[in-house]
User: Which sequence fits this backbone?
């Protein structure tokens, strides 16, 4: 029975009566994140500020971090010392990280001043902060595996803070092999998963409305007029 | 007329509901594409113009050749187990009272000596044995009591510190046992590049753990002085910097900042205090939505009026 049939007859569709785990999961996902929310082609009228571009800037930077990191991974940790192309790819990796954090910090402050956790968006805020914290650890391990003077000094210096917490016994910053695996596998997975979760939550809840927005505001009372005015 | 509490609740409900007001056209994929192109131009441009730093690493060989006196003095301390690494405490050694604590909290000891390092054996005698150097001196060292060994290294360390330029060749004769021969032999092996491989291979053929080499380097003055010249030490904002004039890990500024505050940076447990502070502040940031006062700041300092100025203008 199609959805059209269901609308016409009022009887539930197969999807609605399917009590398999898969069916329930599909219903749950589609209810919370229908396609028009996942891939929107409109936004509320108040989403009209430069501050909104920095989240996308961070995502774009992350794509360049991953792409340049994959090329560096294909060639091994010593490649960039020996090849001018390798050195250029390493430079792209470095500057992608620098701009990733630049965009992310502006995005974070922007969201703070918008009090963007309002309207059941607390988890969105928390995943944003966690992704920032995990990204810092990921970048730190990147500095440890440069196989140059910088990396050996940072490892020597950073060990004291890590050891003081007792974690150094398991997260040994002077162990190149261990840090390399953390940097190219474990932490990228963590960053990608948390950022993906953050984006899904943003799409599910939408962009937070202005502080003190009220039903009496013209853009809510008279949608049509306001719509015309914003274009 | 609505009571203020009802008005507040109504506005909160509005933020939680899907937006039902005016909308504007938006193209997610177009924004992503534009973002990728613009960011791509920026990062490729910076990579092409500013490049990236790549200062060659130092090793035991470069140290031994550049500053042999510092190398020998450090090797003597490693042999006598008086170096920073030998007395570090967990996870490298069992030294009592060397850990950073916060009251009764001793997290460093909690892990135990999980990466045991015997500086005399790992840095000096095992490499010499492996390289088949200074056999008679090694035999004499191994046959001596630990008390005798400590006397020899103590005497030789003091004599080195009094010698002009710390040069082993300028040391006056004394009761040093085989220590000058052992440290001199180690210096020769380091200078010809054999010691780096000998220490690294203590972990086996496929070894990627440089802990021993880095700690040995750090016990001397050569390595830290190079870092100091590159503005990388703790009192120069430490790990957030990198070699050359690059921005480094500027996002660690707050972590490095606490070390620049004398009341914190000079504490014997400064590392533990700073890490604790940063964990606390990160937790605070994550939980801002639940903390009265903090969560009210955006309303009290109306930066949002600037962000949504078009909306407020038309409300």
Assistant:
């Amino acid at each position: 029975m199609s959805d059209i049939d269901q609308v016409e007859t009022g009887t539930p569709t197969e999807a609605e009566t399917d009590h398999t785990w898969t069916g329930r999961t599909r219903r749950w996902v589609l209810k919370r994140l229908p396609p028009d929310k996942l891939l929107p082609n409109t936004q509320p009228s108040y989403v009209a500020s430069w501050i909104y571009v920095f989240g996308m800037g961070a995502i774009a930077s992350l794509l360049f971090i991953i792409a340049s990191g994959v090329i560096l991974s294909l060639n091994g940790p010593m490649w960039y010392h020996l090849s001018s192309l390798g050195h250029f790819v390493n430079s792209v990796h470095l500057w992608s990280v620098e701009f990733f954090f630049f965009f992310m910090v502006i995005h974070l402050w922007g969201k703070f001043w918008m009090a963007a956790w309002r309207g059941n968006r607390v988890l969105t805020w928390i995943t944003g902060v966690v992704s920032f914290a995990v990204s810092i650890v990921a970048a730190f391990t990147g500095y440890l595996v440069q196989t140059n003077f910088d990396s050996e000094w940072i490892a020597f210096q950073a060990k004291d803070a890590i050891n003081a917490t007792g974690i150094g016994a398991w997260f040994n910053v002077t162990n190149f092999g261990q840090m390399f695996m953390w940097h190219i596998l474990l932490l990228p997975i963590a960053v990608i998963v948390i950022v993906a979760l953050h984006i899904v939550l943003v799409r599910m809840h939408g962009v937070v409305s202005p502080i003190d927005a009220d039903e009496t505001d013209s853009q809510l009372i008279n949608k049509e007029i306001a719509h015309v005015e914003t274009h | 007329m609505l009571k203020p509490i009802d008005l507040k609740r109504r506005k909160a409900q509005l933020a939680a509901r899907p937006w039902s007001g005016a909308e504007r056209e938006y193209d997610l994929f177009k924004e992503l594409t534009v973002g990728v192109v613009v960011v791509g131009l920026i990062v490729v441009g910076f990579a092409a113009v500013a490049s990236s730093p790549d200062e060659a690493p130092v090793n035991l060989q470069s140290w031994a050749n550049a500053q042999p006196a510092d190398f020998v003095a450090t090797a003597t301390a490693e042999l006598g187990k008086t170096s920073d690494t030998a007395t570090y405490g967990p996870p490298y050694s069992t030294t009592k009272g060397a850990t950073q604590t916060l009251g009764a909290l001793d997290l460093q000891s909690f892990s135990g000596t999980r990466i045991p390092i015997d500086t005399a054996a790992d840095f000096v005698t095992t490499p010499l044995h492996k390289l088949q150097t200074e056999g008679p001196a090694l035999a004499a060292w191994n046959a001596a009591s630990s008390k005798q060994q400590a006397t020899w290294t103590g005497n030789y360390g003091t004599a080195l510190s009094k010698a002009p330029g710390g040069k082993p060749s300028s040391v006056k004769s004394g009761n040093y046992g085989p220590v000058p021969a052992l440290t001199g032999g180690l210096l020769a092996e380091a200078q010809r590049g054999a010691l780096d491989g000998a220490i690294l291979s203590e972990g086996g053929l496929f070894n990627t753990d440089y802990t021993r080499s880095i700690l040995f380097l750090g016990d001397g003055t050569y390595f830290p002085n190079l870092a100091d010249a590159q503005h990388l030490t703790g009192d120069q904002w430490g790990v957030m910097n990198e070699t050359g004039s690059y921005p480094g890990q500027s996002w660690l500024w707050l972590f490095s900042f606490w070390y620049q505050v004398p009341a914190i940076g000079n504490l014997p447990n400064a590392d533990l205090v700073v890490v604790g502070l940063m964990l606390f502040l990160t937790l605070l940031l994550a939980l801002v939505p639940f903390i009265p006062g903090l969560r009210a700041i955006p309303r009290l300092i109306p930066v949002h009026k600037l962000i949504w100025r078009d909306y407020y203008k038309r409300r």
